[in-house]
Write a structure and sequence with these properties.
By secondary structure, this protein is an alpha/beta fold. The protein is 23% helix and 15% strand. The longest helix has 16 residues. It is globular. The chain starts with 6 loop residues before the first helix and ends with a strand.
Length: 186
């Protein structure tokens, strides 16, 4: 059935993102001392690694584990004899915590995360993609507009379609089901 992503074949072509490209992980944060992720964390002015919309500060430490897990799939350092290898062995992961220790968040926290990413892009950070491994809430015009604004700045928005085997065309899951050109539903 070949339902995997063929990472080993892809690694024959490229193992890292282009220099300066940043991927924003909108989730429960990222464990900043994780041995497979620390070298790939984005670092901004003042030494920050991202934003915490739950606590309103610049310390997006993961207190759930999901964001760290997702970050590992995307960008765990590869071929180092530790843990796993991410799709990109060398990359720049920006932690944006918008979900709390139970994995939940509000629309206000979601919008704060989108706006923070958009502001960083406007400040010159080369954010090329957002990973959004969450969903289940309904559609809101404010969230759709914010995701569209990210797209207007050239940011791909990769959103989880869900893990329940449902048809998103008949049972939409948001943000994955927004009909926007920058949304990639997976």
């Amino acid at each position: 059935r070949d339902a995997d992503i063929d990472a080993p074949e892809g690694w024959d072509t490229r193992r890292e993102t282009l220099a300066g490209q940043v991927i924003a992980i909108l989730d429960t944060g990222i464990a900043k001392t994780h041995e497979d992720l620390a070298a790939n964390l984005w670092t901004g002015s003042g030494g920050i690694h991202g934003y915490d919309a739950i606590n309103g500060d610049n310390d997006p430490e993961d207190d759930n584990g999901h964001g760290t897990h997702v970050a590992g799939i995307i960008g765990a350092a590869g071929n180092n004899g530790i843990g796993v290898s991410g799709v990109a062995w060398k990359t720049s992961l920006m932690a944006v915590k918008m979900l709390d220790s139970t994995g939940t968040g509000s629309t206000d926290q979601e919008l704060a995360a989108y706006n923070w990413v958009l502001q960083k892009k406007k400040e010159g950070v080369n954010i090329v993609a957002v990973n959004a491994s969450y969903g289940g809430g309904g559609s809101t015009p404010a969230a759709k507009n914010a995701i569209e604004a990210l797209g207007d700045r050239g940011i791909l928005f990769v959103a989880a379609a869900g893990n329940d085997g449902e048809n998103n065309d008949t049972n939409p899951q948001y943000p994955a089901s927004y009909s926007l050109p920058n949304v990639l539903s997976v």
